[in-house]
Amino acid sequence: MQPERGDVVRSSDPFKLGDDSQRPWLIVNNESHPFGDEQYVAVALSTKEYGDSIPLESASWKTGGVPYESFVSPWAVHSPRIEDLVAWQGRVTKDFVDHVVDSLETYLR
CA 57, CA 69: separation in Å to the nearest integer? Predict the structure, then answer.
């Protein structure tokens, strides 16, 4: 599996306790990432909606999907390594990724 920007992948969840804790992550890094073929910048998907969550609607998917209504938490950033990735779940549109990155950026400036 060689994920690209816009892919939703399953990986370990550093925000949950337990050995088998996983969650879906949206890959948001671009080609300028210095280790882009072995480590990624990703934001969490959750079934819980918080104030600034971004709904992941069916129109946002190019292919694949998740089994439950989900939201992106742009403040929940993770940097999974390729060996930590468990499964590929799909790919979202470029416009959706751009919206998520714009939201993430508000937490960094």
Answer: 8
| Paired tokens of 95 | 């416009």
In order of 13, 15, 36, 53, 106, the CA distances from 57 in angstroms are: 22, 24, 27, 12, 22
On the question of pLDDT at 37 being above 90, the answer is no
CA distances for 60 relative to 4, 65, 73, 78, 93, angstroms: 16, 9, 15, 21, 6
Residue 73 has φ and ψ, to the nearest 5°, of -105, 90
**CB distance 12 to 22 below 8 Å:** yes
Distance of alpha carbon 98 from its chain centroid, rounded? Answer: 12
* pTM value surpassing 0.85: yes
